[in-house]
């Protein structure tokens, strides 16, 4: 009986850990973010192609032209 309880506890812990991993907002993948609004507020998520302000784990690209 005690071995069965230990097994159930281990399975429950594994399922909980897996569920938390799936529910995490950032699974470790870096986003590729770009903008051409170099004079706008870079803290504005709406100007970035990835839909959020880039973080240190994202690749950020600025596109502009020199006229």
From TrEMBL:
Keywords for this protein: Signal
Position of the signal peptide: 1-23
Keyword set includes Signal: yes
Domain of life where this protein originates: Bacteria
Protein name (database record): Secreted protein
